[in-house]
Amino acid sequence: MTNDRHQWPRLAFGMTAGDRPWLPELATELSALGYDELWSNDIRGKSGLRTLALAAPGALRLRLAVGALALSGTTPQRLAEQVREAGIPPDRLTVGVGSGSGRSLAVMEAGIAELRSLIPGYAIGLAAVGPRMARLGGRVADVVLLNWTGARLAAERRRDIGDEAAALGRPAPRVAAYVRVTIGGAERLAAEESRYHGYGGTYQSVIEDQEARGEGPVGIAVDQAEQVPPGLDPYRSALDTVVVRALPRDDTLEAWLEIARAARLRS
């Protein structure tokens, strides 16, 4: 893996999983808009890997990333089977894993090591919310995906991740983060934050700590499309990859593209 950060994707688009007939068209539009990567995460009963596989034919230059497959309640062997079943080649796919309902750093470290042996050639990502998981990412991952971190905290996490990698003499992982973006619907961002806050644990503490520092809410909720790029600027300087994690007004191609286009009004 190269340690030249300028070679890493700079802008990505993120969406929830779903078998949408227009996914190839979305991928084509994202590529035309200049996006480097498409991320998808699992939701109940829907697979992020399947979503990416359906989108893949639409833009062959668009990299793909799943974030994140939970290690809790399954095995690395089963996750590897899911990756192989998706049929996305290693040079296009980053396989992101997370702890799910578990919190053991040892389980995560062992799971990632086993995945590397089961699916060689794939970049392995680690989803991190808290500082200890982020530092683990610096030691074992190719990509660290942050969640519910504002720009200031993201920059802190990125420094910690780089320090952990340097201490082992390995290249610094690419540091990405979901940045939730909604237009004309601040309540969508508030509802999303409330949902994650309700999970308790690390999510709750990270959200509350940032609010106490005067850095909340995390994400971008604006009334006009042209307000999105200035909101993204602090994240661009804090991260290697900004994942525009869209919160659209409805689940239609045009609603998802409304946010994708807004983020590209100014580079």
CATH superfamily: Luciferase-like domain
The ordered H/E elements are: EHEHEHEHEHEHEHHEHEH
What fraction, in percent, of the residue positions are helical?
40-55%
CATH topology: TIM Barrel
* Alpha-beta content class: alpha/beta
Text of the CATH class? Alpha Beta
CATH architectural arrangement = Alpha-Beta Barrel
Largest β-sheet summary = 8 strands, parallel, barrel
What is the first-to-last residue Cα distance? 26 Å
H/I helix tally: 10
| Number of discrete domains | 1
- State the total count of DSSP E strands: 9
Shape: globular
**Beta-strand residue percentage:** 15-25%
Q: Within the largest sheet, what's the order of strands?
A: 1-2-3-4-5-6-7-9
Task: Indicate the radius of gyration in whole angstroms.
Answer: 17 Å
- Overall pLDDT, averaged? 92
Report low-confidence residues grouped into runs of 5 or more. 1-6
Précis, in short:
It contains 10 helices and 9 strands. An 8-stranded parallel barrel has the order 1-2-3-4-5-6-7-9, surrounded by 8 helices.
Strand and helix map with partners:
Blueprint: E1 11-16, H1 23-33, E2 37-41, H2 48-55, E3 63-70, H3 76-86, E4 93-98, H4 105-118, E5 123-128, H5 131-140, E6 143-146, H6 151-167, E7 174-183, H7 186-197, H8 201-212, E8 220-222, H9 228-238, E9 241-246, H10 253-263
Helix pairs in contact: 1-2, 1-10, 3-4, 4-5, 5-6, 6-9
If you had to describe this structure to a student in words, what would you say it looks like?
The protein has 267 residues and is an alpha/beta fold. It has a single domain, classed as Luciferase-like domain (TIM Barrel, Alpha-Beta Barrel). It contains 10 helices and 9 strands. Helix 6 packs parallel to helix 9. The longest helix is centred in the middle third of the chain and has 17 residues, at 151-167. The radius of gyration is 17 Å and the shape is globular. The two termini are 26 Å apart.
